[in-house]
Amino acid sequence: MKRRLAGWGGAVKVVILDNLREGVLKPDIYDPTLNPLYRDVLTHYGAVALPCRVHDPDRKGKVESAIAHTQAALQGLRFETLEAAQAYLDRWDARWADTRIHGTTKRQVATMFAEERPALRPLPVAPFRYYQFGTRTVHLDGCVEVEYAYYAPPPGWLGRDLAVQWDGVHVRLLDPTTGALLREHRRQAPGRRAIRPEDRPTRTPPTTLTLLAHAARAGPHIGTLCATIHRHDGEAGVRRILGILSLVKKHGPAMVEDACAAALECEVATYRFVRRYLERHPATPLTLRQVDPLIRDLTHYRDVIARKTQEEIPT
């Protein structure tokens, strides 16, 4: 739509569209639910969307009949890139589509558009900046994840869902109910975090205290290592503490306890050290014991089977 409006040199007031998924999420003739991105595009250019009535093709614009002309122009052609195809269509549009005589009005298309051009509204100074959007849950460390980087909303959103919009420059966190902007951060590299100073917790959240207590119950060295990680990294270390506890589930408390003891002895209190230690020191595979007081001789089982067999033979 942005490219089309730029080609026209102005913006329209009303857009009559079919109920395509990119524009309308839930069709309703009275109150349709628009795609958030498409809604913001219309708002940026000052246009209003009027989706057509469902299953009523007579109310659609006649513009769809021009699709046959475009398909005929592209039939049998092959393009290496989308840019090459668009350049071909732009030339075709200027040399043929605009100069043809319209079948209904019997007038040249370019002439009719020149008469309607004054009705277009001026374009905004800056073009619309497209973005991606989705829903994210605020993690225990108080952040949401967007393409492997972490962004903090205001306090009070722990464990709740947020609407998120992001592009190549900014990440916006919005209230999913009202759409109000909660925080806007600049894009960060993978693994980096963005949090405002006023959003940093002044004390350790109860959920983090519960997590540290769980680590302490898993083993003394595990608890000490997790407490060291939290003391050094703050809330950013919550994910690393969760990683330590996930290793406890995978390898067992004894193996992780030894790995944490080695990490503390080497003064490398990190999740990555513990994980690599466990990868390089796999657990000894279990073997069956051949001699044990609970294991009886095979002759004993032979005698039991023979005795039971004799009891079942009728006399």
Characterize this entry briefly.
The protein has 315 residues and is an alpha+beta fold. The chain contains eleven helices and eleven strands.
Provide structural commentary.
- The protein is of the alpha+beta class.
- The protein folds into three domains: 2-119, no CATH class; 132-199, OB fold (Dihydrolipoamide Acetyltransferase, E2P) (Beta Barrel), CATH 2.40.50; 206-280, no CATH class.
- It has eleven helices and eleven strands.
- It has helices spanning 2-8, 36-45, 67-74, 82-97, 109-116, 206-218, 220-233, 238-251, 253-265, 271-280, 298-312, and strands spanning 14-17, 24-26, 33-34, 48-51, 132-137, 144-146, 149-151, 161-166, 170-174, 181-186, 193-194.
- The strands form four sheets. The protein has a four-stranded antiparallel beta sheet, with no helix packed on it.
- Strand 9 and strand 10 (181-186) form a beta hairpin.
- Helix 6 packs parallel to helix 8 (238-251), helix 7 packs across helix 9 and helix 8 (238-251) crosses helix 9.
- The mean pLDDT is 86.
Q: What key attributes describe this structure?
A:
315 residues, alpha+beta, OB fold (Dihydrolipoamide Acetyltransferase, E2P), 3 domains, 4-stranded antiparallel sheet, 3-stranded mixed sheet, 11 helices, 11 strands, 41% helix, elongated
Strand content: 5-15%
Q: What is the domain total for the residues?
A: 3
What is the CA-based Rg, rounded? Answer: 34 Å
Structural class: alpha+beta
How far apart lie the N and C ends?
A: 97 Å
Low-confidence stretches: none
Helix content: 40-55%
Shape, please?
A: elongated
How many H/I helices? 11
The number of E-state strands comes to 11
Mean pLDDT: 86
Largest sheet: 4 strands, antiparallel
- Write down the secondary-structure element order: HEEEHEHHHEEEEEEEHHHHHH
The largest sheet has its strands arranged as: 5-8-9-10
